[in-house]
UniProtKB/TrEMBL annotation:
Pfam families: LtrA. The chain crosses the membrane at residues 6-24, 36-54, 66-85, 97-116, 122-143, 180-203, 215-240, 246-270, 282-298, 304-323. It comes from the Bacteria. This is Low temperature requirement protein A. The keyword Coiled coil does not apply. Keywords: Membrane, Transmembrane, Transmembrane helix.
Length: 331
């Protein structure tokens, strides 16, 4: 259990590490990109580094320490170059630009120092670099200007989270063998599809895509949602493993489902004024989520029952959103 906990923490750190780099690239394109030749070249360099980064993700950090962190350092210095020379704004006059470059500089310094020191102690500096790159913009939150954010573009980029839903289906294909009317396969698909529907409905119909905002809630909630989705996927995969503790497995799936919805409700901060969730909406959705999570835990001994509770929770949550949308249309 201790080993599993350590591996899960390492998994969270790696996801944060990778996605904070992607967010910096997204922010650059969103706020400063000018579609010049330098942007294209820098994107190609980032793609090259990202391939190595992805292929050197491993739970045994010692084996891929240098390759992974060299790729991260290359991506980071490339991002610094983009922010400094690809932007059409002047470094001394743009506080947004200064904030992001400071965070990237600190991350790069820690990555390089960690690589020089070596795995035994350097791994802690590299991890610190990734976490500082992720959290530093929050520390400097007030220096960033909302008017520089292209929010529709940001929502579109962040909505690439749908790829994670696709990954979920790809990774659970072993449940879709044999008869096409397998109850377990149908219920699993229904649960994942309803969860995807909840996210899509919120983004497509509830959000106000045209507003001035720094976009920080959107960016940070998506990182956590991706972690929770990947965790739910892992939980569904391990349902087939008879050696896994059923109590642990059910609590793992239920807790990550709760985390996903909490992030989604935070994301609803950007809803259109008439579609914002009031106290009654949140209470209803919270009750459904808590009852569904309890059902997942109580039905843990049977995969079909566990997944039925999971699917029912997401279907009802989707229904509550659709009901609110239709009710507001009728007013």
């Amino acid at each position: 259990m201790v080993a599993c906990r350590q591996e899960y923490i390492e998994f969270i750190i790696v996801v944060i590490f990778v996605f904070q780099i992607w967010l910096y690239q997204t922010v650059y394109i969103n706020r400063f990109g000018t579609s010049r030749a330098v942007d294209t070249v820098d994107l190609l360099i980032s793609m090259f580094a990202a391939i190595y980064l992805a292929n050197n993700i491993n739970t045994e950090w010692r084996l891929t320490f240098h390759a992974f962190n060299l790729s991260a350092a290359l991506t980071t210095i490339n991002l610094i170059f983009q922010y400094l020379f690809g932007s059409s704004t002047h470094f001394k006059r743009d506080h947004d630009l200064q904030g992001f470059i400071i965070a990237l500089d600190l991350e790069f310094i820690l990555l390089v120092t960690g690589l020089i020191i070596g795995y035994q102690y350097g791994v802690y500096l590299c991890v610190a670099g990734g976490l500082i790159g992720f959290l530093m913009p929050l520390v400097m939150y007030r220096i960033f200007r909302p008017e520089q954010v292209n929010f529709p573009h940001l929502v579109e980029r962040l909505s690439l989270i749908i790829i994670t839903f696709g990954e979920t289906l790809v990774n659970i294909t072993h449940y879709f063998k044999g008869a096409i009317y397998s109850p377990l396969a149908i219920v699993i698909f229904l649960g994942v599809a309803a969860l995807f529907g909840v996210y899509t409905l919120l983004v497509e119909r509830f959000l106000n895509h045209h507003q001035h905002t720094r976009g920080f809630i959107a960016m940070y909630t998506h990182v956590v949602m991706i972690i929770s989705l990947l965790s739910i996927t892992a939980g569904i995969i391990y349902m087939a493993d008879e050696e896994v503790s059923r109590l642990f497995l059910s609590c793992f799936v239920a807790s990550n489902l709760i985390v996903f919805y909490l992030c989604l409700w935070l994301y609803s901060f950007y809803n259109r004024r008439h579609l914002r969730f009031n106290g009654r909406d949140l209470r209803a959705m919270a009750i459904v989520l808590l009852l569904g999570s309890l059902g997942i835990i109580l039905c843990r001994e049977n995969n079909l029952s566990l997944m039925s509770a999971f699917a029912l929770t997401n279907v009802v949550e989707f229904g509550l959103l659709e009901w609110k949308l239709q009710r507001k249309k009728a007013l």
